[in-house]
Specification:
The chain is α+β, with helices and mostly antiparallel strands. The protein has 22 helices and 25 strands.
């Protein structure tokens, strides 16, 4: 017999309640639930009512359609059971790739919903784990990301409920953080960072806030719950803000400066959407934030200069002179120059640590899919269950043992869910009322719709009709009420997954990956060196918001990584190739652009000021050095990208090791100054 009520686990009690209401042919009065459902029997009236109300509300929040009428409580099987969802092999692959592209991005809204959502969508197309479902289109990998978001759930909840947020925020020009009050409109992901767009209640202007610059806890207005604090204008378009450079984001109290830029004819052309082309080698931009713009210019390397107005040109020159003077004081003139980096510049990212803490609801959610799956697929190998549900054998056995204690009143052995394991093959018996999973919830649907929306703007050439078909099947798998809520959740998020390259370059590279054709490219390193190469592009690689191509470089006869926005020209060749994946280093396939365990490369030690500490923490291990400065240790296979970052930071960074890096920085500053005829 089942244990006494006091010993019943929460997940067990909830599963008993779902089974009882789902199997009942008519609504069940509260007193019947109390006396018949194991987990509620015994105890006082007050204890029962409090426990039941809490359980009922929690199950409703997780999509269980518990209804209450005059005659009692019920669950309509038609509202509970997932309708049949048939995905084609191509649709399975598309869904898998979109999940893989996004679920490794930290703090993605509704990220925790993706595993269950994917399993439900794949239930009738032979349930697979997410990584396997993506193998049919091995054209993109996702590197581990950085820039986590503080209190992401608080932000998303406040945006959905239209409640004002309060957060300590340190802007680019702030000496220290100060409290900001924001009516959140949405958040977007770009270049490895999350941004919040919302109305600054102090100024009334719509602003963009980079969320890793929040220095403490974020809170939502607790007053008048259920009542909105503000209304978002119907003219607001989150995509406009997501497409702007930070320096080009309009400000109500600042007039833009018209800035002209020039690129060298043989150089890499800038591709920012914030630039307007005015000639073969010239552009113009509206600049609202001068300091952020200067940093962006320096990041582009020696091929881009500011032509006018004079005060903006002089500001760039002054920054370079400042850097040159600061680092010239410490450079080791006799030290050898650091070797150039063959790989495109990229930030070193910190591997993700930790994981979700198991909970009763997580276990219940897993069982509400595992039991239907085993009912439909008896004699499933235990190893197959581990692969599908991405938990180990011990956890699966715990799940099954819990289900074994659940069922229908009076809970005799003939009424309980049963399972058997024969030769390591698992089957479930006497659980016909759980033969199908729960419908897709609004949160799960929104998570999937966000993924598919993002992949439609990625370099992976996914058929638009295929995306539309999957989205239609997602919407058909949820309740009509949930569809509207999913749309609102989806509208609050925007991902920029497009290639930095445009036009001919993007078309040639995308076609080369898709058709396995070689491509001839003109490639520019971070230091401005230009080389002509023939490349066999194996797959795209997304890291920190930047797209890369991993493939065989015939110039070096080795696997190389090329950052897409450093390819200035590309010509598709007729010659085909077959990828030799055995030559691809394992760390690429595991989502690591750099092999940080390698003995090759450099260890760099910097001392940075408190003001840029959060920026430095993105690229290395940071620790306090003294009351004012921080020590940053960076491991990198090359230095070109880091030199450009040091140029941006000016005199707020000192190079401790290797000492010859100072001379490299000074040399790069001189190279840039020479473009300004200095």
């Amino acid at each position: 017999m089942p244990p006494k009520t006091s010993q019943i686990k929460k997940a067990e009690r909830l599963l008993n309640l779902i089974a009882f209401l789902l199997s009942a042919t008519q609504p069940q009065p509260l007193e019947v639930i109390r006396t018949r459902v194991e987990g509620y029997t015994g105890g006082t009236d007050t204890t029962f009512k409090r426990r039941f109300e809490r359980d009922k509300d929690e199950l409703r929040r997780h999509g269980i359609p518990i209804e209450h009428g005059d005659d009692g409580y019920s669950v309509d099987p038609d509202e509970y059971y997932l309708p049949e969802v048939r995905l084609s092999q191509e649709e399975v692959a598309t869904l898998g790739v979109s999940l893989r592209l996004l679920e490794s991005i930290p703090d993605m809204p509704l990220n925790s919903e993706l595993p269950t959502a994917a399993m439900k969508m794949l239930f009738d197309s032979r349930l697979q784990n997410r990584s396997d479902s993506a193998k049919a289109v091995p054209s993109a990998l996702v590197g581990r990301e950085h820039s986590p978001v503080a209190d992401a759930a608080v932000i998303d909840g406040a945006i959905a409920a239209r409640k004002t947020l309060t957060m300590p925020y340190q802007g680019l020009s702030d000496e220290s953080a100060r409290d900001r009050s924001v009516n959140g409109y949405g958040r977007f992901y770009r270049d490895g960072h999350w941004y919040l767009v919302g109305q600054d209640t102090e100024t009334g202007a719509v602003r963009t806030f980079r969320l890793d610059r929040v220095t403490g806890s974020i809170s939502a207005n607790p007053n008048r719950p259920g009542v909105t604090d503000y209304v978002i204008s119907p003219d607001f378009d989150l995509r406009v803000f997501a497409g702007n450079e930070i320096w080009s984001s309009p400000s109500d109290d600042t007039q833009p400066t018209k800035v002209s830029l020039e690129v060298s004819p043989e150089g890499r052309h800038p591709i920012s959407a914030a630039l307007e082309k005015t000639g073969p080698n010239s552009y113009i931009a509206d600049v609202y934030f001068k300091d952020a713009f200067i940093d962006w210019v320096l990041e582009q390397g020696p091929d881009l200069i500011v032509a006018s107005p004079q005060q903006m040109t002089q500001a760039v020159i002054d920054k370079l002179e400042l850097v040159k003077a600061h680092h010239a004081a410490t450079q080791d003139i006799g030290a050898p120059a650091a070797p150039a980096m063959e790989i495109a510049d990229a930030s070193l990212v910190t591997p993700a640590v930790g994981g979700q803490v198991p909970s009763s609801l997580a276990q219940l959610e897993r069982l509400l899919i595992m039991v239907p799956y085993l009912t439909k697929n008896p004699e499933t190998e235990m190893s197959e269950l581990e692969r599908i549900f991405e938990v180990d054998r011990t956890q699966i056995e715990k799940d099954l043992n819990l289900a074994f204690m659940c069922g229908l009143p009076p809970y005799t052995p003939a009424d309980l869910i049963d399972f058997e394991i024969i030769d390591d093959k698992v089957s479930v018996l006497m659980a016909d009322y759980l033969a199908r999973p729960l419908r897709i919830t609004s949160g799960q649907a929104a998570a999937l719709l966000i993924c598919l929306d993002a992949i439609s703007r990625s370099p992976l050439r996914v058929d638009a009709d295929q995306i539309d078909s999957i989205q239609a099947k997602i919407r058909a798998s949820m309740s009509p009420e949930g569809d509207q809520w999913a749309n609102e959740l989806q509208a609050n998020v925007w991902f920029d997954m497009s290639l930095e390259a445009q036009g001919k370059v993007a078309t040639a590279i995308e076609t080369a990956v898709e058709q396995r054709k070689k491509v001839a490219v003109a490639y520019h390193s971070a230091s401005g060196n230009r080389t002509e190469r023939t490349v066999q592009p194996y797959f795209f690689f997304l890291m920190a918001g930047d797209w890369y191509i991993v493939g065989l470089c015939e110039l070096r006869d080795a696997i190389r990584v090329f950052r897409m926005d450093r390819i200035s020209d590309a010509d598709l060749l007729d010659e085909r190739f077959e990828p030799d994946m055995d030559r691809v280093p394992e760390h690429y396939l595991e989502g690591e652009l750099f092999d940080t365990g390698s003995s090759e490369g450099f260890e760099v030690v910097l001392h940075v000021s408190r003001r840029i500490a959060s920026l430095a923490a993105e690229i290395g291990e940071i620790s306090p050095f003294d009351e004012q400065d921080y020590r940053v240790v960076i491991n990198t296979p090359g230095l070109d990208w880091l030199v450009l970052r040091i140029l941006q930071w000016g005199d707020e960074v000192d190079i401790s090791h290797p000492p010859e890096l100072s001379s490299v920085v000074v040399s790069q500053a001189n190279k840039l100054l020479s473009r300004y005829n200095r």
